[in-house]
Amino acid sequence: MGNQYDVIVIGGGPSGIVAALTAKTNNPDKTVLLVRQEKQAIVPCGIPYMFGSLESTDKNVVADGGLNSAGVTIKIGAVVEVNAEKKTCTLNSGETCGYEKLVFATGSSPSVPAWLKGSQLKNVYIVPKNKAYLDAMIKDLEQFKKIVVVGGGFIGVEV
Ligand SMILES: Cc1cc2nc3c(=O)[nH]c(=O)nc-3n(C[C@H](O)[C@H](O)[C@H](O)COP(=O)(O)OP(=O)(O)OC[C@H]3O[C@@H](n4cnc5c(N)ncnc54)[C@H](O)[C@@H]3O)c2cc1C
User: Fold this and answer.
1) Ligand 1 centre from 4 Cα, in Å?
2) Of all residues in the chain, what percent carry a pLDDT higher than 70?
3) How far is the centre of ligand 1, averaged over its atoms, from the C-alpha of 13 (Å)?
4) 117 to each of 132, 133, 149, how far by Cα in Å?
5) Is residue 152 part of a domain?
6) What CATH number does residue 47 fall under?
7) Residue 55 pLDDT
8) pLDDT for residue 1
9) Has residue 114 been placed in a domain?
10) Confidence (pTM)
11) 146 CA distance to ligand 1 centroid (A)?
């Protein structure tokens, strides 16, 4: 199969990047594919600064150069199915890739309590690790005078 890899890593956050680089560095002869949903990966720790001190959200992007120069193949898309018997992953594009070893580095996403009425209303946001979403949110925020942050953990406090 043309789309056959020794290692497939699902996820392009810090865990996925380190897993793919570690696999490739220790096994240069093996083929490693990293699949992530975002066109551009961002540094999660820098997200709060995207709302203020960074002049542009582009300054918080993780360049793909390290992965490229290590020889890791990158595909942008969502893995929608894993067939453990056939050892294949199917992407939302319909493309199917085979693997010998599979790493889930699918991370986390913000949770909004289902009981919280109004969470779907306009001008209600979450803080995902997604540059396109945050770019649109930051643009919207410019028009607002009063902002309420729900959640007082470190992300809420920083934001
Ligand atoms: C605002 C904010 C500030 C933070 N600040 C800090 C900090 O200062 N210090 C600190 O240590 N931590 C911080 N964190 C926490 C840090 O973001 C997480 O610990 C880290 O991102 C976890 O990395 P991960 O690779 O496991 O998962 P994630 O970063 O969540 O990455 C998951 C990856 O999996 C991909 N993915 C998921 N499902 C699929 C699928 N089906 N197909 C393909 N790809 C998929 C996603 O596209 C993404 O690329 C912060 C988080 C936020 C939100």
Assistant:
1) 27
2) 99
3) 5
4) 26, 22, 16
5) no
6) 3.50.50.60
7) 81
8) 53
9) no
10) 0.93
11) 28
Give the structural domain span for 19.
4-104
Buried b (16+ CB within 10 A) or exposed e, 66-101: ebeebebbbbeeebeeeeeeeebbbbeeeeebbbee
Kindly give the parts of the chain with pLDDT less than 50.
none
Ligand 1 mutation pick, 33, 36, 40, max ligand atoms within 8 A of CB: 36
Find all residues with CB under 8 Å of 40, minimum gap 6, and list them: 61, 62, 131
The total of structural domains in the chain comes to 1
Mutate to test the pocket of ligand 1, among 45, 51, 73, 125 (most ligand atoms within 8 A of CB): 45
Examine residue 83 and state whether it is found in any structural domain, yes or no.
yes
CA-closest residue to ligand 1 atom 44 = 36
